Amino acid sequence: MTEASRRPLIIGSGIAGLYVALRTRELGLRPTIVTKGRLEESNTRYAQGGIAAAIGPGDSPARHLEDTVRAGAGLVDRAAARILTHEAPRRIADLVRYGVPFDTVEGRISLGREAAHSRARILHAGGDATGLTIEETLKHRVLDQGIEARERTVLRALRPGRDGLVAVLSHENGQGLEFETERPVVLATGGAGSLYRESSNPSIATGEGVAIAFRGGALVTDMEFIQFHPTVFARPGAPRFLITEALRGEGAVLRNAAGERFLVRAHPDAELAPRDVVARAIRQELDRSGAPAVYLDATALPPDQLYARFPTITRFLATYGLDPARDLIPVAPMAHFMIGGVTTDVEGRTTVPSLYACGEVACTGVHGANRLASNSLLEGLVFGERVARHLLQPAPGGPPPPEHLVELPLPTGAGRSEPASGFDEVRATLWNDVGIIREASGLRSALTTFEEIGRVTEPSSSKEVASPLANAALTASLIARSALLRTESRGAHFRSDRPRTLPSWRVHVGVVVRLSDKRPPGSLPTRVKRRRTSSH
Ligand code: SIN
After folding, report:
1. Which of 35, 281, 389, 518 is the most exposed place for a label (fewest CB within 10 A)?
2. Does domain 188-226+402-530 have CATH number 1.20.1600.10?
3. Distance from the CA of 298 to the center of ligand 1, in angstroms?
């Protein structure tokens, strides 16, 4: 191994980034974490429900696998999901070893239930503060280990180097280029939820890891699948705040403004139906009634149990004068999780040599078209471990091409400074036209909007780095373009003009840059390849 290859650069400090840093250090490498905020600021911090693993009596990784495959609406990569579910118990043991204090009952880790899981298999910590507890524990381990961490530092670009990959980084949100470094890069930058006007994610979740990897030549897959969380606190003027699915797992129900449990009409499992079904049924109910929210009703749960199991939510609601044991909680579905992302194999290798990805930014295929609740923190750990091991013994290889491949020119534009309203326009357009319910004309218009922003803000040459807005518009355009291409409805992707699920679309849509292309920026691809999958 060269000295540079022993010093991986890990971009992002959620569960995936922190875990890869810890494991690579234990394996004898010298990682550096680069993170655009503070070390502890990440989407992981806001995960309430927990982390899934088949560790309880009567459960097994095989059952967890079957639930994952069933929720994924025909698109789960079974081999990757097998790894996810079967390696889960070992990764939980790692978290326990690092000191994560999972909640217990009579000395045993207590397990909750969430939608579409056939068993109680969700571990939690601090009640509904699971992500926060994991993030803080791993952060302290990283600091104890003396792992180098560069906060307020942003990845701006990835370029081919003499021997590997060059990462272009800058401090403080891109004010002044600071340095370039040629080392293996692990993208753990998380998702793109906050590109949507209504989202459960913190503002840092802007999906730029996808845009930067895409510009660097990486294949990006399944971008049309954005998961919407059914129950985010929805009171006008209040911050968006996740109201965990675990509440429904404990018995809370959803009611419309007339007090009816409308979900019993949508699915036999009602409130515990897969997340895409619940989110869509709520959206339809809101569109029908014109109301701004539906209501989560936890008033039948024993108050002491409710307060003890959900202290974060109880505290949050109290600031709005609500008591979950007595009051209905106004909620609405909002963008939550990016199911697609930078395509990787099960070792975390992307299609670009020396570039790895894991966690939400990556697309291994484990979630198919609809992620099973509490499989996301798990994904960061399981594939983070594989990335760490692979960094120790790198070997060439990577993911195979998707069945449906689109090649696009490298975007270029006028390189002009950002229109102040640009981010708001991206957010509103994604929410209005590429949201829970989509149709072709809205998707086309959204794509035009994102490409127009790109024509103004994209750099005029590949030597310049792209601005945050150019990255946001590019990621948004990948979502809209993939949604337009998929002329069916499946999992989290629902098109009112194509409501059926079609066997011929049991394929993945991948998008990649054609570096030599001379066509004008923003024009549609000339080549769309379609092949049938054999892996399902
Ligand atoms: C939740 O607590 O409802 C969110 C967990 C997840 O998205 O997996």
Report:
1. 518
2. no
3. 17
